[in-house]
Write a structure and sequence with these properties.
Length: about 160
């Protein structure tokens, strides 16, 4: 009986997290100087009236002074959110150069969710919402097999 009460207490203290969810807590972000900033937006994610800074970085570094930049076969994506003195590393993702990576903001009442679409061999849709000084990551979709894409051909009409 004691074990059951203890397990129930731990469950109630930690809260309910779905199987496809995980928690991301504040942490330090290192080595951003190796990445190139490709996007930055300020948005109120938690509905408190104060904007958080959302930054997307890509690596390896593209040297701006080089006549021709060459990219490796692998691309590294970093998604960083800053809320005052708190920093969260939401994504540290390695993908093939041809893979797609799209970010969207989804309005959800007073809050905004960050939605990430990962393309390539495996397809994923992941959402992040900010609550109680942490992010909740939820996998909304992940392909379980080969996803066949189809091409559209358009004919110009004069």
């Amino acid at each position: 009986m004691y074990k059951l009460v203890t397990l129930l207490s731990i469950f109630l203290l930690l809260g309910c997290v779905k199987e496809n969810q995980s928690t991301i807590k504040e942490g330090s972000v290192k080595d951003l100087n190796k990445y190139t900033s490709v996007a930055e937006v300020k948005e109120d994610l938690d509905g408190n009236g104060i904007t958080e800074k959302i930054s997307l970085y890509v690596g390896p570094v593209i040297h701006k002074d080089a006549a021709v930049s060459s990219l490796a076969d692998q691309t590294y994506w970093r998604l960083i959110v800053e809320d005052g003195d708190k920093t969260f590393s939401l994504i540290n993702y390695k993908s093939s150069y041809n893979d797609s990576f799209d970010l969207w903001l989804e309005e959800n009442g007073k809050r905004n969710n960050i939605i990430v679409f990962l393309g390539g061999h495996n397809k994923e849709i992941i959402s992040y919402h900010y609550e109680d000084s942490r992010f909740i990551k939820e996998k909304r979709y992940k392909s379980k097999g080969e996803v066949k894409e189809f091409a559209h051909e358009y004919t110009r009409i004069n």
